[in-house]
């Protein structure tokens, strides 16, 4: 059941059957791409650059303190910026968060009785 659910989600993502308000599409738009494979490549480049930027390193080091230990593919990178202090964010923070969601996010699983 879980595998079927994940497969359906991936199929929909790759075929863009989502509405334009889906957070994963917001992540792709924040990265300036239109497909998941291109998003992964761009995300790897952004995270690599973020590790060399002092402000982005601060954001990365406080990620789990501010957001939690798990990123989900339906997380909204713009909304997540609100969890950080203003001094920890800049104009690239949304891209960094979107990159992390694309690279490390996982599908959100709801309890079966929900």
Q: What would you call the structural class?
A: mainly alpha
Strand content: under 5%
Helix content: 55-70%
Shape assignment = globular
Total number of β-strand segments? 0
For the termini, the CA-CA separation is 15 Å
What is the element string, with H for helices and E for strands? HHHHHHH
What is shown here, in short?
With 114 residues, this protein is an all-alpha fold.
Structure, described:
- The protein has 114 residues and is mainly alpha-helical.
- It is 58% helix and 0% strand.
- The protein has 7 helices and no strands.
- It has helices at residues 2-15, 23-31, 36-50, 54-61, 63-66, 77-80, 93-104.
Structure keywords:
114 residues; mainly alpha; 7 helices; 58% helix
Task: Detail the topology: elements first, then pairings.
Elements (H helix, E strand, L loop, with lengths): L1 H14 L7 H9 L4 H15 L3 H8 L1 H4 L10 H4 L12 H12 L10
Helix pairs in contact: 2-7, 3-7
């Amino acid at each position: 059941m879980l595998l079927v659910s994940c497969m359906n989600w991936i199929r929909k993502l790759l075929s863009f059957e989502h509405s334009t308000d889906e957070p994963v599409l917001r992540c792709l738009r924040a990265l300036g791409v239109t497909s998941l494979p291109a998003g992964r490549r761009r995300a790897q480049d952004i995270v690599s650059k973020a590790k060399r930027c002092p402000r982005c390193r601060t954001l990365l080091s406080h990620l789990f303190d501010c957001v939690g230990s798990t990123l989900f593919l339906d997380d909204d990178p713009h909304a997540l910026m609100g969890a950080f202090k203003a001094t920890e964010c800049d104009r690239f923070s949304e891209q960094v968060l979107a990159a992390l969601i694309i690279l490390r996010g996982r599908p959100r699983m709801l309890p079966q009785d929900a």
